[in-house]
Design a protein that fits this description.
There is one protein chain. This protein is α+β, with helices and mostly antiparallel strands. It contains 9 helices and 9 strands. The strands form 2 sheets. A 6-stranded antiparallel sheet has the order 6-5-4-9-8-7, sandwiched between helices. Strands 1-3-2 form a 3-stranded antiparallel sheet. A hairpin with a 5-residue loop joins strand 2 and strand 3.
Length: 263
């Protein structure tokens, strides 16, 4: 039996009004009650209450109503208290269980990536990684993801500061080539490391975007060449991308179904 949902009519109506204003930007009293099918007297009382608490406001002599700044303050408090490690962990465990491969959560720190979480697979083969390990941006799927979703100016500033050493015979070592590659990464929504950082390891990564659509982290899947191959690459990349989108949604990103964003 499913969990019973309790619905308090007055609260439900207040939330309907707030969401209506949020979706429309502004609306008058006369526009709200017929569109929401809420009695006129109820809309009036709810709006008066919301205005008195700062959740709804009027500007000047206008009859138009807007969302109040109290909502902005609450939203800011919520975002500031988000723990990306805690939010991501259940999804990484699910990805790990479904693929039997090592998963990471990483962030950008200056001109390098840093592993915040490592979820190891149960197999005998272990990845040469650990929480706190720093990683290059040009040769890893994670690094390429953290670069690809930056705005162009910030990305160019980082590329001016880093070197692109050939860690394997497949590493991208020219800035122009890396820039072109990052455009491909962004268009398809995920990055691939084809033995570019370590000779026998492949990786797939996708971005985690915050409420403003900015990249704040990346999740990745790492495995041997025999584990990530031409037969399963697309399927695994979709798993990684979908997992990243779920975490992004947890962080408030409303366009988490589209990893391609402007900026």
């Amino acid at each position: 039996m499913g969990k019973r949902i309790y619905r308090v009519p007055a609260v439900w109506r207040a939330l309907d009004i707030l969401e209506y204003l949020g979706n429309h930007g502004e609306a008058s009293f006369k526009e709200i009650y017929p569109n929401l099918d809420i009695p006129k007297s109820s809309v009036y009382q709810i709006l008066e209450t919301l205005q008195s608490r700062g959740y709804v406001r009027k500007v000047g002599d206008s009859q138009k109503l807007f969302l109040g700044f109290k909502l902005v303050a609450l939203g800011t408090q919520t975002v500031s208290r988000l723990d990306i490690r805690a939010e991501a962990m259940p999804f990484l465990n699910e990805l790990n269980a479904g693929t039997k491969m090592t998963c990471h959560l990483s962030i950008l720190d200056g001109t390098e990536g840093v592993y915040l979480i490592k979820v190891e697979c149960d197999q005998l083969i272990r990845m040469n990684s650990y929480e706190g390990k720093r990683l290059p941006l040009h040769s890893t799927a994670t690094g390429k993801t953290l670069l690809a979703w930056l705005d162009e100016k910030e990305r160019d500033e980082i590329l001016k500061k880093i070197e692109l050493p050939p860690l394997t015979g497949k590493t991208i070592t020219k800035v122009a080539d890396l820039k072109r590659h990052l455009e491909v990464v962004r268009k398809r929504g995920w990055a691939f490391d084809d033995r570019e950082n370590e000779p026998h390891i492949r990786g797939i990564a996708a971005p985690i975007l915050n409420i403003k659509g900015k990249v704040v982290a990346a999740i990745s899947l790492a495995g041997l060449v025999s584990q990530i191959n031409s037969d399963n690459l697309i399927g695994l990349s979709e798993l990684v991308k979908n997992t990243a989108q779920k975490i992004s949604a947890q962080l408030g990103n409303k366009s988490a179904d589209k990893t391609k964003s402007d900026g």
